[in-house]
From TrEMBL:
Coiled coil: none annotated. This is Cyanate hydratase. Its EC number is 4.2.1.104. Residues 75-147 form the Cyanate lyase C-terminal domain. Keywords: Lyase. Belongs to the cyanase family. It catalyses: cyanate + hydrogencarbonate + 3 H(+) = NH4(+) + 2 CO2. GO terms for molecular function: cyanate hydratase activity; DNA binding. The active site is at R88, E91, S114. Catalyzes the reaction of cyanate with bicarbonate to produce ammonia and carbon dioxide. InterPro entries: Cyanase (IPR008076), Cyanate_lyase_C (IPR003712), Cyanate_lyase_C_sf (IPR036581), CYNS_N (IPR048564), Lambda_DNA-bd_dom_sf (IPR010982). It is an enzyme of class 4 (lyase). The keyword Lyase applies.
């Protein structure tokens, strides 16, 4: 079964059942950001997690099994992205990326922020001038090594 089809079935079940990502995350004991990432095809679930999600979303067994397969990451969005929300993150990286790189190097040295040992959260912050999107990304610093 193609991963895009699995993702579509997950999204349809989520909508049909009126669930939020946090509801699904609670069922497997993970964060809503990681759960959404996995169920949108960018990370595998353990067999136990997949069974819990399958039960909650009333998914067929072949879909449940497909949720445990290690995916090809980063292949679901064309570059540059065309979706306005995704494009804004791309734009943020284009505009602020060089400054982020400089600040990371100044504070940590020569290295990168891991996207593997990584956590992320998204929350809504009420503001009288218009609500704000608060995104926190937290990745382990990985220094380049010499050999």
């Amino acid at each position: 079964m193609e991963r895009a089809e699995v993702t579509q079935q997950v999204i349809e079940a989520k909508r049909r059942l009126g669930l939020k990502w946090k509801d699904i995350a609670g069922a497997i004991g993970r964060s809503e950001a990681w759960t959404a990432t996995a169920l949108l095809g960018q990370a595998p679930l353990s067999p136990e997690e997949a069974q819990k999600v399958g039960s909650l979303l009333e998914l067929p067994e072949d879909v449940v099994q497909a949720l445990t397969v290690i995916p090809y990451r980063g292949t679901t969005v064309p570059m540059p992205p065309t979706d306005p929300v995704l494009y804004r993150f791309y734009e943020i990286l284009l505009v602020y990326g060089p400054a982020l790189k400089e600040l990371i190097h100044e504070k940590f040295g020569d290295g990168i922020m891991s996207a593997i040992d990584f956590e992320m959260s998204v929350r809504r912050v009420e503001d009288p001038k218009g609500d704000r999107v608060h995104v926190v990304m937290n990745g382990k610093f990985l220094p380049y090594r010499k050999w």
